[in-house]
Amino acid sequence: MPVLENAIDIARSPVEVFDYCSDLCNELEWSPGYMKSVERLTDGPIGVGTRYLAEWQQGGPNTIEYTRFERPTFWEASGDSPSLGMVFQARIEPTPTGSRLIVRMELRPHGLARLGSPILSRAMQGQEIRNLAAVKCTLEASTASAASASS
Questions:
Q1: Total Cβ atoms within 10 A of residue 141
Q2: Residue 31: which of 139, 135, 142, 141 has the closest Cα?
Q3: CA-to-CA dists, residue 83 to 42, 63, 91, 150, angstroms
Q4: What one-character-per-residue DSSP string does 56-98 give?
Q5: What is the pLDDT of residues 130-144, one digit of tens each?
Q6: Residue 45 has what DSSP assignment?
Q7: Longest Cα pair distance anywhere in the chain, in angstroms?
Q8: In what order do the strands lie in the sheet with 74-80?
Q9: Which of 17, 85, 131, 143 has its C-alpha lying 20 to 30 A from 30's C-alpha?
Q10: Full-prediction pTM beyond 0.90?
């Protein structure tokens, strides 16, 4: 099964990175061209058992469920669609200038999608690198906006 791993440093605290990134609804903000829709299906605070119905440009609707949630350092989610299952993990480590966001995605293609697994992996690896850069840009821009607003 293909596994994608990427990391990026973000000039924001681990709690800020965790709270923003662990809410799947925020992906619409930093990835509007890649994500079509997302809807939270459960009430209450985000944690183990939180479920979303999400749809990305490539693929059909996918139910995502959080299976581990250890604020502010780690969360894990799994999802399944007719063509692709996945397990997503994110770890946040403090750095001298903020945080390092480390993401790991295990892809589980189904049926004919298994044949295209190498191509799918390369495409998703590129998308994940762009996703992390977009998260960094969004979070760091909000820091700059807050700093200029308080000046």
A1: 10
A2: 135
A3: 24, 13, 26, 48
A4: ESSS--EEEEEEEEETTTEEEEEEE-SSEEEEEEEEEEEETTE
A5: 889 999 999 999 765
A6: S
A7: 56
A8: 3-10, 98-109, 84-95, 74-80, 62-70, 51-56, 35-40
A9: 85
A10: no
